[in-house]
UniProtKB/TrEMBL annotation:
Residues 153-175 are annotated as: Disordered. Coiled coil: none annotated. The lineage of its organism: Bacteria, Bacillati, Actinomycetota, Actinomycetes, Kitasatosporales. Residues 189-344 form the Integrase catalytic domain. Signal peptide: none annotated. This is IS30 family transposase. PROSITE patterns: INTEGRASE, TRANSPOSASE_IS30.
Length: 346
């Protein structure tokens, strides 16, 4: 069964940690004391957070001809308990290969879990929980997936440096800006495809950059190669125009960006593409949340503090294809590529 998780341990796994599957010694002691005090099975179950049937099975299995003795019951239960089976991902086979392939493609454990359901709907042998994959990543050093952990575990979202008081800022650009507050409602609620969010990923010492574009409805990502990593306004304008012009007209709706100096030529971009540019408020990265999240994922491929100018257009295309091939929770586990394909074929 696939659990839903946004962290290395999901809610279901946390609940199991707080409420173990098997009765503990302290629980057996409480059963003894409450039973001796005349409490009913239901009352004992409520006190322990267990079902009455669990208490009944415990008493039937461990009382015998004598009164219930918690320490003897605990030893007997441990002796009867089946030894654990080998963990699924320690065994060679299709399931392990599928998980390893997903990790190499930088899919999260939850994405792998749902991809298994989608690609093998009738094969119960191709099932693994999110928690099992995390256990394999973090704890199975011998014969498990420890080697893949560095590539599979994602870094946290980057924090932006504090900026000056917005009220004391001077106008950023000569050409008037369209602010995000002017953006139509159909863009805001993602009802109409073709509206994009953009930003730069900056390399070491701010000497190189890659421009990123993410479509708000499908989460489809395009990476813009900037020759030599230059990210002045003219280079960024030319790179964005060149990339956007590869799109069909109905997918050229608008672009939302922050107030970085690289967009000083936004008016010329709009003239060349027919796409208005809406600017976020200062120090408000959540107003481009889709792009911010995508840039966090891209840091798996382009780590902070590295030279981004070494990546060719072909390299960027390969990374974009990998990212667009990931199943997304927000898309009901479709991929951005599948959603874009549907838009292009309908």
């Amino acid at each position: 069964m696939c659990g839903v998780t946004t962290a290395p341990v999901g809610l279901a796994a946390l609940d199991k940690q707080l409420h173990p599957r098997f009765l503990t010694l302290s629980e057996r002691e409480r059963i003894h004391d409450l039973r001796a005090s005349g409490h009913s099975l239901r009352a004992i179950g409520r006190a322990l957070g267990r079902s009455a049937s669990t208490i009944m099975r415990e008493l039937d299995a461990n009382s015998g001809s004598e009164d219930y003795r918690p320490y003897a019951a605990h030893r007997a239960a441990a002796a009867r308990r089946l030894r654990p089976k080998d963990r699924k991902l320690l065994r060679q086979g299709r399931l392990r290969r599928f998980v390893q392939d997903g990790l190499r493609r930088r899919w999260s454990p939850e994405q792998i879990c749902h991809a298994l359901l989608k690609e093998h709907p009738d094969d119960q042998s191709m099932r693994v929980s999110v928690e099992t994959i995390y256990q394999a990543l973090y704890f199975q050093a011998r014969g498990g997936l420890k080697r893949e952990v560095q590539a599979a575990v994602r870094t946290g979202r980057t924090r932006r440096k504090p900026r000056r008081d917005p009220d004391r800022r001077t106008p950023r650009f000569t050409d008037p800006m369209l602010m995000i507050s002017d953006r139509p409602a159909d863009i805001e609620d993602r009802a109409v495809p073709g509206h994009w969010e953009g930003d730069l990923i900056i390399g070491a010492s701010s000497r190189s950059a890659i421009a990123t574009l993410v479509e708000r409805t499908t989460r489809y990502t395009m990476l813009v190669h900037l020759p030599g990593g230059a990210h002045d306004a003219e280079t960024v304008r030319d790179g964005l125009v060149r990339t956007v012009q590869t799109l069909p007209a109905h997918l050229r709706g608008s672009l939302t960006w922050d107030q970085g100096s690289e967009m000083a030529r936004h008016k010329q971009f709009s003239t060349a593409t027919g796409m208005p540019v809406y600017f976020c408020d200062p120090a408000s990265p959540w107003q481009r949340g889709t792009n911010e999240n995508t840039n966090g994922l891209l840091r798996q491929y382009f780590p902070k503090g590295t030279d981004l100018s070494i990546h060719s257009p072909e390299d960027l295309e390969h990374v974009a294809q990998e990212l667009n091939g990931r199943p997304r929770k927000t898309l009901d586990w479709d991929t951005p590529a599948e959603r874009l394909r549907d838009l292009l074929t309908t």
